[in-house]
Specification:
Blueprint: E1 2-5, H1 9-23, H2 28-47, E2 53-54, E3 63-67, E4 73-80, E5 85-93, H3 98-103, H4 108-122
Parallel strand pairs: 1-5
Antiparallel strand pairs: 2-3, 3-4, 4-5
Helix pairs in contact: 1-2
């Protein structure tokens, strides 16, 4: 399954690393461990993309999974089996308001599918 991240997911990860390094007085290894936990959770999601907490409006069709040590990592995602794609809208850590943050990120799915369809039409 192809992993397609919203462009702001990179910012999510950078902010997560910054937060951990600052709150642990410079423990980069702790931030690295959390990134490993995110990778492991993404692998679990890809292996079973229908599993997760189903979200209601305005995020109908999207799911959230919590994982990592203490279940402090949240990933909001949507699987598209026809495209063999897993769309990741947001990665949150700790007590972040991931529901509000996810709402503005769900539109990239349609844009991504449109660009894929345009690319296929151009071939």
């Amino acid at each position: 399954m192809r992993l397609i991240r919203h462009p702001l997911v990179k910012r999510d990860l950078l902010e997560l690393v910054d937060h951990i390094v600052e709150s642990t007085q410079g423990d980069v290894a702790a931030a690295s461990r959390r990134l490993d936990e995110i990778d492991a959770l993404l692998a679990e999601i890809a292996a079973n993309p229908g599993s997760g907490m189903r979200l209601s409006a305005p995020l109908d069709g999207w799911l959230a999974r919590h994982g990592g040590r203490g279940h402090r990592i949240t990933i909001v995602f949507k699987a598209d089996p026809q495209q063999n794609a897993l769309y990741v809208a947001l990665v949150a850590f700790g007590g972040q308001d991931w529901m509000s943050g996810s709402v503005g990120r769900k539109t990239f799915v349609n844009e991504s599918l449109l660009s894929q369809n345009r690319s296929k039409a151009e071939i």
